[in-house]
Design a protein that fits this description.
5 helices; 3,4-dihydroxy-9,10-secoandrosta-1,3,5(10)-triene-9,17-dione 4,5-dioxygenase; globular; alpha+beta; 2,3-Dihydroxybiphenyl 1,2-Dioxygenase, domain 1; eight-stranded mixed β-sheet; nine-stranded mixed β-sheet; 19% helix
């Protein structure tokens, strides 16, 4: 398979300082500034690589790009051909964009929901941010994202048929989980009236790391938008906070891996326990 993993997410944000404060004080994520052309972008460093989340100062809060890491130039060309054959216009990224991402090759297209999707080769190990809070390894990387969209059928076709993601499982009437490696899922797609990111998941090493982040969230008065719980499908233990752009960050650990013998199925109940929502759950099963 050509796509190896979720590499990074870029966000247009109206309050970079609030994001930086949340990332550092509560989640232990260092943020550094980088220049790209005339822009100054805040880069959130979660592991040994250059960054996983880029924050672009903006007058609006909105997704800017979703970046997938591809194995080889040959696979990038093959996926480009598949996208072109499916009617997508694929363009090369600029030199500045490629340099910012630490990539050797970069191409992008616009998906049916209007999101810019990037395919990149190469990652640069240049972690420079300050050390994390004491008490454990903490965050280990960017786990997955969940998109809410009125174009569910088209997005499913893009990821499952064109980009060759595999369906792991689903929950009726319209929430689907896809993988591009052995991790249970790297992306999930759900139905909504407006296209948006429902949440990004920040992967942690241990339940103690999740617990410490939970304590820091309460100490720093960060709104916990979905309480601590364990998911039914991937078995991860997590909680969610509302970020300054208005969507959720999931703080989790312990998700299962799957192999080629895995059979997609409807996993029914959303969580084994916990995960109480402070607001309406857009993916809740409606009573008939």
């Amino acid at each position: 398979m050509g796509i190896r993993k979720l590499g990074y997410v870029g966000l247009n944000v109206t309050d970079v300082d609030a994001w930086t404060d949340l990332l550092w004080r509560t989640l232990g994520v260092g943020v550094t500034d980088a220049k790209s052309g005339t822009e100054t972008i805040a880069l959130a460093e979660m592991d040994e690589f250059k960054y996983r989340v880029a924050l672009y100062p903006s007058g609006v809060d909105s997704p800017r790009e979703i970046g997938w890491v591809v194995d080889t130039p040959a696979e990038l060309d093959r996926l480009t051909h598949r996208l072109t054959a499916a009617g997508y216009t694929v363009a090369d990224g600029t030199d500045d964009e490629r340099d910012l991402r630490g990539a050797t090759h970069l191409r992008w297209f616009t998906d049916p929901a209007g999101f810019r999707v990037e395919l990149a080769i190469g990652e640069t190990k240049v972690r420079v941010a300050a050390d994390r809070p004491a008490g454990g390894p903490g965050i280990t990387g960017l786990g997955h994202l969940v998109l809410a969209t009125p174009h569910l059928t088209e997005l499913r076709h893009l990821y499952e048929t064109v980009l060759e993601f595999r369906l792991t499982d689903y929950r009726s009437p319209g929430l689907f989980f896809f993988r591009c490696n052995t991790t249970h899922h790297s992306i999930a797609l759900g139905t909504a009236d407006t296209a948006s990111i429902h949440h990004l998941e920040f992967e942690h090493a241990t339940i103690d790391d999740v617990g410490r982040a939970h304590d820091r969230a309460h100490a720093n008065n960060v709104p916990v938008s979905i309480s601590l719980g364990r998911h039914m499908n991937d078995k991860a233990i997590s909680f969610y906070v509302k970020n300054p752009s208005g969507f959720h960050l999931e703080i989790g650990c312990g998700g299962i891996t799957v192999d080629d013998d895995w059979v997609p199925h409807d996993f029914g109940q959303a969580s084994v326990w916990g995960h109480r929502h402070t607001d309406t759950n857009p993916f809740a099963v409606k009573d008939s």
